[in-house]
Amino acid sequence: MVPLCIPEIRGNEWKYIKECLDTNWVSSVGSYVDKFERDFSDFVKAKFAVVTVNGTSALHLALKVLGIGHGDEVIVPSMTFIAPVNAVKYVGAEPVFVDICRDTFVMDADKIEELITSKTKAILPVHIYGNAVDMDKVMEIAGKYNLYVIEDATESLGTLYRDRYTGTIGHMGCFSFNGNKLITTGAGGMLVTNDEKIGEKAKFLSTQAKITLENKGFFHPEIGYNYRMPNILAAMGCAQLENIEEYIQIKRDNAKIYNELLKDVKGITLPVEKEDVQHVHWLYSVLIEDEFPISRDELIKRMFDEQIETRPFFTPVHTMPNYVECRHNGLETTVEVSLKGINLPSSVSLKIEDIERICSTIKSITKSE
Ligand SMILES: Cc1ncc(COP(=O)(O)O)c(C=O)c1O
Q: What is the pLDDT of residues 110-126, one digit of tens each?
């Protein structure tokens, strides 16, 4: 089976984790926790990074730090993994859904403004599958209405928008190191910001809002969370980060090969890389249009029979029972793209022969129908 997207472990992971085990520094205090934060903020060029137990906790923390809560609204896409929308609910705020662009599959910045009310407190762009939201437009709207911007860059680590890494353009950015992400710690997340106050508050809340007293006792002036990543996982993160440039290049090269092999297949719309974006292609994603001889779901089944794992695009969040009542301004493109989109295998370890076999399997289906 060619898997959809599996981790790549080829560097110092064993060495660094063994060091944690040998020295007993396995929990959430340890040199790798600090090093991972430092190395990550250096890589994405953000001033502060706070490492967390997963990407969802980073999103929750970001909303909490910015004081978003009951009675507030946050503008999010419905075409996303559900975590950022759930995080909005965790703090008691209401998600408001904005439609997406048909070519990039991400939030349509031109449709944000019409959703803004006096309750709107933040915009939460999600850079899905590695493409980037038009952040200049988002920041312009946020400035005009005095809103916060929290980027969910969990799927776009390594993507550049006008020479800046996604996740570092808004007030805060969140990342995940779940097993299928560009780099992984098994489970893990990171929150970045260029604002010192926000960074310090995030770190404080992530460590149970704990102040250590002179006698070494603890004092907690606020309700905090146990969201700190253990040293043992941060050690893995440091090792993974050492190879990130190479992983990004491989993903981009593989996308070029896919594009070349699929460009003449009738009924397939290829991913778009806008002029000001350097797309990491975390998951190589295409649309199966009506002219394609079989449906998207039939294609998934036929690929599976050929030992190739693929995945349909996200089921829109506004169709989930807890979110059907949420406000939006029309989600036609979200619905259409969710029904036509498919992710093809995208692991860093994917070989050129694998891509050739995947593409020839797709082509042979079009010929046999
Ligand atoms: C867009 C998006 N946001 C948030 C998350 C949540 O990250 P985690 O699984 O690390 O909590 C994920 C995926 O895992 C994701 O794809």
A: 999 999 999 999 999 99
